[in-house]
Each structure stands twice: as structure tokens, then as C-alpha cells.
Task: inverse folding
């Protein structure tokens, strides 16, 4: 986590961490200030400081990283659910068809992404291998 300038020591640094976290979890600046135990004007002032902005950005990155991890964990369960619906002869036909369509669409997109990635990597290698001195000048 980025270092926060300490004007009044460790207590102020901790308050800034709480404020940055509250900005992520609360709906309004006022609610964030209240949760952090500071005045709204103080929070507005801190939000203008480079050190606080860096701390806030880092906390947002961490929050998004945690959310992405949860999504990735849920993806396995989602695939298992689709497989269960597809294989369940007692499930409505429409549900089975939609599950199968979702699996096929996702598989096709994955193949397309792999192909595009391979083509992009080949183009990048080609561009990096191209002699730099052979270019025409204007």
C-alpha cells in the first residue's frame, strides 16, 4: 500500500486509510466521511492531495482485483450449472437449449480470442524483427 504523508502521525495515516476505504464502500462523500469519523470538508481536502489519491487508487485496484477473483471462482460453478442443466433430461427443453447455446457461444468466443491473440503476437514479432534502417524518409 502506498505511504501516506503523516502530518499528525500514525493516527492521521490510519484515518486516511479508513477514508479511502469508505470512499469505495459508501454511496456518498458524506457517508464516507461519517464512516471514517472525519468531517466532509476534511475528506474533500484529502481527496485533493496526491498521496491520498494514490492510496485511494491502490485501494480501488485491490477491490477490483478481489472482485475479479470472486468472478473467476464463480465461473467454475456457472459452467457446472450449465452442464447440469444440459444433462438433465427432466429440465425444460428451452432451458437445456439455452444452456447448450451459452456453452457453444462461449467456446467459440474463446477460440476467436485465442486466434486473434496468436495473430497479434505474430504481427508484433514481425514488427520487432523488421529492419529499422530500411524505411523511406520523407
Result:
Amino acid at each position: 500500500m502506498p505511504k501516506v504523508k503523516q502530518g499528525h502521525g500514525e493516527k492521521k495515516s490510519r484515518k486516511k486509510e479508513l477514508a479511502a476505504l469508505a470512499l469505495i464502500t459508501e454511496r456518498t462523500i458524506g457517508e464516507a466521511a461519517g464512516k471514517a469519523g472525519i468531517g466532509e470538508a476534511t475528506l474533500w481536502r484529502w481527496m485533493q492531495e496526491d498521496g491520498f489519491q494514490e492510496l485511494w487508487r491502490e485501494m480501488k485496484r485491490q477491490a477490483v482485483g478481489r472482485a475479479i477473483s470472486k468472478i473467476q471462482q464463480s465461473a467454475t460453478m456457472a459452467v457446472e450449472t450449465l452442464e447440469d442443466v444440459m444433462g438433465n433430461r427432466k429440465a425444460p427443453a428451452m432451458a437445456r437449449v439455452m444452456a447448450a447455446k451459452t456453452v457453444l457461444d462461449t467456446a467459440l468466443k474463446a477460440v476467436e480470442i485465442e486466434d486473434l491473440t496468436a495473430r497479434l503476437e505474430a504481427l508484433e514479432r514481425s514488427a520487432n524483427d523488421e529492419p529499422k534502417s530500411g524505411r523511406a524518409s520523407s
Notes: The first helix runs from residue 10 to 25.
